[in-house]
Amino acid sequence: MSNTLDFSKTKALEIVKNDHCAIKQVHNDNIFTFPEGILGFENIKNYVFLMNERVAPFMFMQSLDDSNLSFVCIEIFKICPEYNITLPTTAVDSLGIEDPNDLLIIGLVTVRKDVEDTTANLMSPIIVNIKNSKAQQVILENSEYPVRFKVWDAIEESGAAFNAG
What we know:
Layout: E1 4-6, E2 22-25, E3 32-33, E4 46-51, E5 58-63, E6 70-75, H1 76-79, H2 89-95, E7 103-110, E8 119-120, E9 126-129, E10 134-137, E11 149-150, H3 151-157, H4 159-164
Parallel strand pairs: 1-2
Antiparallel strand pairs: 3-4, 4-5, 5-6, 6-7, 7-8, 7-9, 8-11, 9-10
């Protein structure tokens, strides 16, 4: 049995018994470009987002430029519904944002050995323009949001919402 994944015939992510995922084909519509890269990974520009019901509400941001690079992330509003930021004009312009409803705002997650210590970075969110497939990590100046937001506390508080779908 092959461990490759053909996006034209299956879901974006499938974890097989050996817990590996291989990407065989990715349609251009599923590739998100980070013109400036991500802090610490400035030369890595192209990613796909991979979802799996078994690890929801988490998702993976897999690099297409370096197959060994993948980030766990989460949609920030799922763990912090009151999240409210003002994007710098430079980010709005570089991402070509015309409508806030075209955005997906995610936080990079640091998974700890003790799962209850898992955190998400709310101070430097990843802003994804779904409409044009551009993305950027934005470091918020004078942010009231932490770099280490306790994800598990938020998931437990919103447990009913996650269980409902």
